[in-house]
# Entry
Amino acid sequence: MVKIYVIDNGGQWTHREWRTLRYLGADTKILPNTTPFQILNEEEVDGLVLSGGAPRIGLENKLGNCAEYLEKASFPILGICAGHQFMARFYGGDAKPSKTPEFGRVELTLLTSDCPLFEDVPPVSTVWESHNDEVTVLPVCFIHLAESKDCKIQAMAHKEKPFFGLQFHPEVEHTAYGEQMFTNFVSICKN
Amino acid sequence: MFNPEQFINESIQTLQETIKGRALIAFSGGVDSTVCAALVNKAIGDRLIAVHVDTGFMRKHEAEQVKNIMESMGLNHRFIDASKEYFSALQNVTDPEEKRRIIGKKFIDIFERVAQTEKLTYLVQGTIAPDWIESGGELRDTIKSHHNVGGLPDKMKLKLIEPLRDLYKDEVRKLARSLRLSISERQPFPGPGLAIRILGEATKDRTEIVREACYIVEQEIEKASEQGKMTLPWQYFAVLLPVKSVGVHGDKRAYGDVIAVRAVESIDAMTCAFSNIPSDVIDIISNRITNTLGDSVNRVVYDVTNKPPGTIEWE
# Structure
């Protein structure tokens, strides 16, 4: 059974991420973001989700032990919302308060068709958002994968490592292809 | 996927192992507490007492409905009319969080009283995931303190049991169907009841207004859905706003209350989209509210906010 843990950064939908993974048959657990990397290593996780949360990554530079995970992990990591913004900052990009924060329904446009995270996801789809900050500068080692009208960097992937960042929330019911994206992430973790 | 039969069997076993004495279940008659009562009843039989507190903020005809549910399930039950206590505790209270905390605390006070008289050791609650998630704590921001979480004292004599803690409403409904409970499709109704559908002070008079408005919204939407004009929304109700607006009644100036109609589509209450109620149905609702409640309400508005940025209830 593929083991994918959820790191809780205090999001409203952290538990939804856990539910989605459980429904997809993954062995999953929610851990606080103060968990040392060593524990993930000892438990031999196959993948990690960094949840969103109330911390303002556009204003502060810390998100529990997330830096340590990004630094040391060789398994896939999916950063969502605050997790995605932190990932961008960690790799030399930037996150700032959004000019137009997005809440609720947003139209997502994919910029590439060959990212494994978006397999079987149509080029344009409905996603659900809830953010005050966003990634404003893409790290040089990342590819830009998707955008919306008001937020350019909706999705990104590391050029070499299996690290992905999503500004929107694939874990909620109202994101049309959210479960598909999680299915894809589970397959990435299995390989 | 979620397997209701497996969940039911496992939780009955866990409940039998955990509950050694007698237990009280906080019973509102909604899907969560009714499912929870059925599970615990299967596990420990008549060592369980279902307690329903009438806060004075229940919907029209709800008291009789809840009594019927408790009786039809064969539950050992107590019905406590605490409406006077609640109205007096909420006097002059307008802050939504304060309202929720007072209501939550009062529930626990009442349960502790019952527990003492009846020698009960456990408090069972039908708390589900959104309740504790939205109530916040540590890293997580408090969106709203749910009555069954925010009202709990730091030190409680009763031992707390919450078998549905990790489930969402859609999963609880699956349990209800599997247990063949009549309430499986009942729309969600918050623990603090109509008190949080009255923005500002929840007085007795204002409760009567919102109670009637909620009744009209429920009746008309249910009728429209039976007639095939729309599908039944996930939740649908009325909210009494704390503003007044000018109107005209029979050539005379009217200055009255505003009712907001809310109807949403959701699966788990964690996100929602507002419902597209057909305009003729909205028209009927608006007319009936302003005619029935003509002495107080002269304007009806429709809430077109998704979650986020809104929440389902207004407080």
Notes: Chain B has a mean pLDDT of 96.
